[in-house]
């Protein structure tokens, strides 16, 4: 009997189309979805190194976000391959989730030690990213469904980090030399917005989980 995941992350159709050719190749070459999940950690580690060294080599702020997007693409591709090759499993769901959390930590730790923001800002962003994902899985753990809602889901965290990195680079290259605004750098502000967005996302996910549990109890 083929295993069907109980919850699947909503992915924009355009983004999904970019993985169809790669999905067919992975099936043809018998590439296991777990290998793709592990590969996402490699790209996240590369992004972390780029962020870490961007204080000395600002041009790396161009490359780091691109690697973050490749990480997201791998996170999508492993699920597509698992379903298309009928290799989805409960074990696979765990091995799909853990690399995501490792990736979040790696990327924000790289930001924390870049010298372009306060380490506290980036570490709080990492903590809230983990907490947001954890809350999302709580519904599934108690028999409801995995929640992906809220402003600051994984793709939007990476998109916001991308925006902050490129704005910071623009200020370094074309600005007037002023790198702090209100006592914080652009990457500090980026991490702060991520933290606040995660708070909203946690609230949205908990509200939806409780609503579904009440609905289930009533029926």
How far apart, in Å, are the first and last alpha carbons? 29 Å
Number of helices: 8
The CATH H-level homologous superfamily:
CDP-alcohol phosphotransferase transmembrane (TM) domain
User: What topology, given as strand order, has the largest sheet?
Assistant: 1-2
Count of the separate structural domains: 1
CATH fold title:
Four Helix Bundle (Hemerythrin (Met), subunit A)
Structural summary, described in words:
This protein is mainly alpha-helical. The protein is 73% helix and 2% strand. It contains eight helices and two strands; from the N terminus they run H-H-H-H-H-H-H-E-E-H. The chain is globular.
Short key terms for the protein model shown above:
2 strands, 8 helices, two-stranded antiparallel sheet, single chain, 73% helix, globular, Four Helix Bundle (Hemerythrin (Met), subunit A), 219 residues, mainly alpha, 2% strand
TL;DR of this structure?
The chain has 219 residues and is mostly helical. The protein contains eight helices and two strands.
Detail the topology: elements first, then pairings.
Layout: H1 13-17, H2 20-28, H3 33-53, H4 60-84, H5 90-112, H6 119-141, H7 154-174, E1 180-181, E2 184-185, H8 186-218
Antiparallel strand pairs: 1-2
Helix pairs in contact: 2-4, 3-4, 3-5, 4-5, 4-7, 5-6, 6-8, 7-8
């Amino acid at each position: 009997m083929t295993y069907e995941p109980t919850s699947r992350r909503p992915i924009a159709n355009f983004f999904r189309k970019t993985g169809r050719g790669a999905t067919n190749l992975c099936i043809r070459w018998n590439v296991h979805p777990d290998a793709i999940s592990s590969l996402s950690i490699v790209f996240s580690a590369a992004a972390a190194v780029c962020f870490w060294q961007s204080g000395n080599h600002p041009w790396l702020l161009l490359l780091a976000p691109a690697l973050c997007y490749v990480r997201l693409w791998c996170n999508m591709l492993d699920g597509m391959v698992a379903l298309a090759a009928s290799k989805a499993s409960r074990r696979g769901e765990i091995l799909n989730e853990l690399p995501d959390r490792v990736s979040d930590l790696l990327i924000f730790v790289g930001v924390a030690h870049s010298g372009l923001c306060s380490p506290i800002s980036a570490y709080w962003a990492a903590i809230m990213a983990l907490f947001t994902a954890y809350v999302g899985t709580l519904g599934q753990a108690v028999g409801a469904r995995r929640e992906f809602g809220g402003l600051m889901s994984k793709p939007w965290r990476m998109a916001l980090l991308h925006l902050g990195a490129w704005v910071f680079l623009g200020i370094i290259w074309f600005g007037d030399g002023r790198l702090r605004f209100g006592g914080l750098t652009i990457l500090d502000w980026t991490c702060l917005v991520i933290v606040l967005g995660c708070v909203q996302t946690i609230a949205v996910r908990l509200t939806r989980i409780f609503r579904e549990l009440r609905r289930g109890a009533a029926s």
